[in-house]
Amino acid sequence: MTQIDVVGLTKRYGTTLALDGVSLQAREGELVSLLGPSGCGKTTTLRCMAGFMDPDAGDILVDGTSVTRLPPQKRNFGVVFQNYALFPHLSVFDNVAYGLAVRRLPKAEQRARVADALAMVRLQGLEDRLPRALSGGQQQRVALARALVIRPRLLLLDEPLANLDARLREEVRWLIRDVQQQSRITAFYVTHDQAEAMALSDRIAVMKAGRVAQFATPREIYQRPAEAYVARFTGDANIIPARPRDRTADGGFHVPFGGVMLPVPGVDGIRPGDPAMLMLRPEALSLIDPGAEGVIPALVLGTAFLGAALACEVSLADGTRLRLQASPHAPVQPGMTVGLRVDTAHAWLMPDVLS
Ligand code: ATP
């Protein structure tokens, strides 16, 4: 088990500033995801950590000791890539044993450790197969076994599920979580898929243009995003310009919305009167009888049946459009006037920053 500190990583490719002071930590046994859109610097961060690339500035510490100047093989990290990177002419056994053979471990120990690693990823019985005789999911499990068998201090995974179809992706995602928790190995995981990051991570670093926009637990990132960029990247969200009137007694804000005054929690630094952004996740909104007291009248613009829910788009008197999910049995149709209720516990006020 290992504690990792990434401190102020900076990296330029020519004139492109790919990393602009990335700092992250993983505590022992923690899985930390780097989440963000294409080009935000996730892979560059991971490659610097693995030692495949030198940062221009910054440091990578393992249990307080810098490894930034060590070559990859001296770091003792396990790495799993998107494209498996298995040796095509070697059997499953030899692929997994490779790192042990390089380290010249006795044959008997190699056999025992390969058997353990293959059992962990549930691939016993396939030792003699060549990679081309395996499915994508099985190949990725071999790659995972190969990374784990060396008992790395840190596991680095770069979009390991990207080449798998949706069903396999979910299966291998659970396996990775299981294996990581069982072996209590510290891990960093690169993905642009928010559902994957939410399901797997102890903490998520949401990256934006070479920086960490927010580093927190999945729950915090989802419920208390630091800015609209994070809110948008971590699930469906209605994000509406808003100007808080004053503070509530419990430290929140009074925000005029749809003709009523909503008491909502929010980012602490916002000052009353400042332009801000109100986040309403779809589950913060529900439809009720338009005649009820204190409801916000809304016009239904469109609906889509999703099976477990009815997705609705509504518009308020001032033209604000909102998306929400109603019961699949709700008798809601385009053109109807409905009442909108806001569960302010699921609302969140953020500063108005460029995103
Ligand atoms: P993706 O999800 O598409 O892999 P990413 O978040 O991993 O993206 P990086 O691959 O780290 O992003 O790239 C960060 C920035 O650096 C991007 O602007 C990218 O175009 C640039 N970049 C990456 N590799 C190189 C390179 N070898 N030469 C020049 N620019 C590069």
Written overview of the protein:
This protein is α+β, with helices and mostly antiparallel strands and 355 residues long. It has two domains: 4-228, Rossmann fold (3-Layer(aba) Sandwich); 237-351, OB fold (Dihydrolipoamide Acetyltransferase, E2P) (Beta Barrel), CATH 2.40.50.140. The protein has nine helices and 21 strands. The protein has helices spanning 42-50, 72-75, 92-102, 107-120, 136-148, 166-183, 194-200, 218-223, 228-233, and strands spanning 4-13, 16-26, 31-35, 57-62, 65-66, 77-80, 154-158, 186-191, 203-208, 211-216, 238-242, 246-247, 253-257, 260-264, 276-280, 285-288, 296-305, 310-316, 321-326, 337-342, 347-351. The strands form five sheets. Strands 6-7-8-3-9-10 form a six-stranded mixed beta sheet, sandwiched between helices. A hairpin with a 2-residue loop joins strand 4 (57-62) and strand 5. It is elongated. The mean pLDDT is 93. The structure holds adenosine-5'-triphosphate. Keywords: ATP-binding, Nucleotide-binding, Transport. One of its GO terms (cellular component) is ATP-binding cassette (ABC) transporter complex. It comes from Falsiroseomonas stagni DSM 19981. One of its GO terms (molecular function) is transmembrane transporter activity. Residues 4-234 form the ABC transporter domain.
